[in-house]
Amino acid sequence: MDIMANTLLAIGASPAMVHAEEEVEEFVTLASALLINIGTLSTPWIRSMHRAAAKAQELGKPWVLDPVGAGATSLRTNTATDLVVSYKPTVIRGNPSEIMALAKSICKGLDLQPSDGAQKGVDSSQSSDHALGPAKALAKECCCVVVVTGEHDFVTDGSSVITVSNGHPILTKITAAGCTLTAVLAAFVSLGDPTDVTHVIKSCACALSIFGIAAELAVEDPIAKGPGSVRMRMLDTYGRFNAQTLLEREKISFPS
């Protein structure tokens, strides 16, 4: 929660980390977008997630799901599946194993092997290229945008695919890097109409690129010596980010 909140503040968003059943609906009413991250699960928190997603759906507000560890345990897979099926997220962002596990759970008839979607704890055991087909199937089945992140990141609405290649391998050594990225996606998606698929997929692509560029700049900083210092230097990079930085460094491939 700490690094997610600090990153949101650094990019100009205003975060609130909320999980009490008694107030989640009020906060969704106030918020521009909802992010549900299932990284920490308990029965009361799951009830709060359902209440928050239902409120976002009722109000027509964008909401983003991070299915952390889906495929690792039945509780995580079932919780993510229930949220997707019941409340139709605007965006699902996960690593390859998480996306494949969700696709296997939701998309009936999808041809996946028993090991597909297997997790190493909450880390992926698959490549993003391997997960692209299931990601497209999941997006089409759920009428949402799916973002699968890895060596290359993919954004798909089930038919078109945008590829983003910014980033650095050191991100795999930083706890909550993926969770933080999902928070940035939610902030970007909140800036427009969540029913406009073009806005949603382009917002996700830009968020992926900016997050990846921040990692690249942090690694290039001579003060950065490893995952711990890169984590902090990433926060510093957002303050000196501008349109020119994005234009010079973005690696976004739109469909031809």
Automatic annotation (TrEMBL):
Needed co-factor(s): Mg(2+)
Pfam families the UniProt entry points to: HK
Keyword Magnesium among UniProt keywords: yes
Pathway: Cofactor biosynthesis; thiamine diphosphate biosynthesis; 4-methyl-5-(2-phosphoethyl)-thiazole from 5-(2-hydroxyethyl)-4-methylthiazole: step 1/1
Gene Ontology BP annotations: thiamine biosynthetic process; thiamine diphosphate biosynthetic process
Catalytic reaction annotation: 5-(2-hydroxyethyl)-4-methylthiazole + ATP = 4-methyl-5-(2-phosphooxyethyl)-thiazole + ADP + H(+)
GO molecular function: ATP binding; hydroxyethylthiazole kinase activity; magnesium ion binding
Gene3D superfamilies, sorted: 3.40.1190.20
Keywords: ATP-binding, Kinase, Magnesium, Metal-binding, Nucleotide-binding, Thiamine biosynthesis, Transferase
Keyword Kinase appears in the UniProt entry: yes
Domain of life: Eukaryota
EC number(s) from the headed UniProt entry: 2.7.1.50
NCBIfam families: PRK09355.1
HAMAP family: Thz_kinase
Protein name, UniProt field: hydroxyethylthiazole kinase
Organism: Pocillopora damicornis (Cauliflower coral)
